[in-house]
Structure formats: structure tokens, C-alpha cells
Amino acid sequence: MTYPALEVHQLSKRFGGLLAMDAVTFSIPVGSLTALIGPNGAGKTTLFNAVTNLFPPSSGAVRFMGQDMAGLTGARIAELGLVRTFQTARVFPGMTALENVMAGAHRHVRASTALQMLWSPGARREERVMADKAEALLDLIGLRAFRDIAATELPMGAQKNLEVVRALMARPRMLLLDEPAAGLNDSETAELAALLMAIRDSGITIMVVEHNMSLVMGIADQVIVLDAGRVVASGTPAEIQRDPRVIEAYVGQEV
Length: 255
Prior knowledge:
By secondary structure, the protein is α/β, with parallel strands linked by helices. The protein folds into 2 domains: 6-91 and 160-249, P-loop containing nucleotide triphosphate hydrolases (Rossmann fold, 3-Layer(aba) Sandwich); 95-153, no CATH class. Helix content is 37%, strand content 23%. It has 10 helices and 10 strands. It has helices spanning 44-51, 74-80, 97-103, 113-117, 121-140, 156-168, 186-201, 213-219, 237-242, 244-249; strands at residues 6-15, 18-28, 33-37, 59-64, 67-68, 82-84, 174-178, 205-209, 222-227, 230-235. Strands 6-7-8-3-9-10 form a 6-stranded mixed sheet, sandwiched between helices. A hairpin with a 2-residue loop joins strand 4 and strand 5. The radius of gyration is 19 Å and the shape is globular. The chain starts with 5 loop residues before the first strand and ends in a 6-residue tail after the last helix.
């Protein structure tokens, strides 16, 4: 049986008396790029947090590649191949750009801590393989020349891209990206669009929360619209742009 990459069924989340997410239901095909959009406060980040059990849902179900996510830890979810980023760039201070990217592969390290401390031949080989892959990813986003620069010294756009390729080091089957274009200029946004499409074309499923409508409509296979914690529309970018419910949700905003 072939499963969708992600299935969300009647997912709700309450914070005390506040219903932040109300019976959200959708599915995402394997190998697709889906955009999740909606006004501020619509519940987009809450949805990501519920899907990854950062704040477990109050009710409903989430399945990733056919497996129920209920009760799983964030580490276990990442092991299954569902990897996320956050709204603000989270580079590790005190580490170079290369070291930041390599950190994404930590769960795949086979050498024991003792072997790593003793710098055994096996540990050295494993480190070299990870470094080579990290350098290739830095090259992909045009940052290879900055491999030895402290990640915190890079511009915001570079830090955002660094977080995306660090997530790739975890060998994800699906990426959840929370506002990767926030704070980027036009040229950086164009570079991000090319990167996301390349990731999608490599077979990795992507779901992205984004406010940049030009970016969303240019790269998404499907768009899901949240408003006040509910799904109000879903479809192709062309269908979404014509949907009166979307226009209403974005009153005063250009869609």
C-alpha cells in the first residue's frame, strides 16, 4: 500500500480555554511541495508543533508514511525522517558554518563516544565523509568559501539557508520549514526558491509555512490555507488565488 507522506485528521489543539487549531484535516503526497499559508495567528506554527509533538495535539491523529505519531518523542520522529526548522534561524554559536551543517548528521554517527575521543581510524573516516557531504551542501547554497567562518557572523539569509541544509544532513524523508524566507531580500528569496525546488526534485517531501505569496505561488504544488485555526481552502496555487474564502481571509492583503 502506498501512503501519503503526511496525513492529518481532525487535529485540534487547546491552550486552556483557547482553541488554537480546530479539526484540521489534510494529506500531503510523497515528493510534493506544499505551502501552508494564512494570516498571522491562523495557527500555522501551532500545526507544525502539534505534528511534531513539540506541543502534542489535544485530539485528532497524525500519520507519517503510514505510521501513527501519537506519543512519539521529537527525537523518534526525526529518526523516522520527519525533520523541521523554526521561524528564527537557529545556528549554533561557537561553531563554524561547516560544523553547523555537520551537526545535522549527529543521529547517524556510528562511532561510539569513546572511539571519537580516541580519534580512531573509523571515527576519522566517518568524520571525513560527513565533512565532504557538508561541504557539498555549502557549495549548493554558495557558502563553501565561508565554511570556516563562525555561523553567527553570516547574514540572516545565509543563516536561514544553513539551517535548511543542516536539516538535509539528517537524511529527511520530509522537511517542515517554518517561514524560511522571513527577513530575506529578493535575491536571497530567489536562491531559496531554487533550493527548495531542488530538494523537492530530489524526492524529499516539503511542507513550508510562508508569508511570501510570490514565493509560495511560484514553487508550491498545492497550497493549504488556515484561518482562525481551520482549513478554509486547499488546492493548486491557481485555484487558491481565485478562491473567495482566501481573499476574505487576507482582507487588505495581496494574494
